[in-house]
Request: fold
Amino acid sequence: MKNMNIRCSGCGAIIQSNDSLAPGYIDKEVLEKHKDGNFYCKRCFDLKHYNKNVILKMDNDKYLENLEKIKKDKGLIVYIVDLFDLDGTILANINEIYKSDNILLVANKVDLFLNSINLNNIYNYLRRYLKSRNIRVKDVFLMSSFKNEDIDLLIEEIKKNKDNNQNVYFVGMTNVGKSTILNKIIYKYTDVADLITVSNNVNTTLDNIYIPFDDNSYFVDTPGILNDQSMIYYLSKESYKAITPRSYIRPKTFQLNKDQSLFVAGFVRIDYLGKEDNGFKEKASFITNFNNSLLIHRTKEENADVFYEKHKDDILKYPDSDERLKLGELRSEIIEVSKNTKIDLAIFGIGFISIFANGKIRITSFENVKYRIREAMI
Reply:
């Protein structure tokens, strides 16, 4: 059966029954039986009901075609980022990608931070962060996709920032909560639950999905922004689930003496080198913010190499041997730190460590585990 321009309600792909590894595939018999209704392709059906993913042959030309449509339409861009993984989900060239400054930045997953966190401080931090990276947006909005009141406030924020006839494009990387937010909006207006397919897999949304918002405009779910720095490209489903937080993060504080080390599972190791002065005895504070079940282990630096080789597959556990090959060679970098400036070591896709120390620290990680030193968020 040839291309009929009937689209999957879950991912936006055009329904077809010729190629089981191409987007939009559905069994011919199922298609004939239900040709008058809404369709979910076989991949979306399996994801929704069995949490089973099929690796598809992706069409990069289609991705670029959708990007051109957004740029030409000049709608409002709702750019959704993961507040907990800010550096891993925000692109410094977002204005260039969409040729637009008409962007509402939505920082999702604020619910992962404890209630004691002052949201005004986070808002002001984001404003400074964007300015430092020359990212231009109309406004910043903090939210949790799990809170209905935040969905209501987001809709009001969108109405405030869009012109009457503007379409609203929801963009962002995989697993920032983009489709979850849109599903909540759809449910609010139509009582249809979970229309768009949601999963932790790369490119769950395969084509633009247009949802009527009012008489003059659409909300549009778009395929995830391609970013090969994301950990999801290197880890199995089990490992990715292990590093992804689902509830409040409980910060853990570690006091390190000079020549002690801290492991973030098997992904990153930090050695506190302190100062070269033999009488140097200052402790350093490392406040970790990761999925609560992810192992953080402290040991003496002189024992760290042996501990890693002995326990990388059991105690440290993640990443496994296949994932380590994908993540590349280990690399080390020494940086100077000062208690006069509290910083974060933000590890893309995993979390961050707030560091309060004097002297030097050595960071050892795989070449494809990206990190960034930034002003402390909290």
Remarks:
- The radius of gyration is 23 Å.
- DSSP finds eleven helices and 16 strands in the chain.
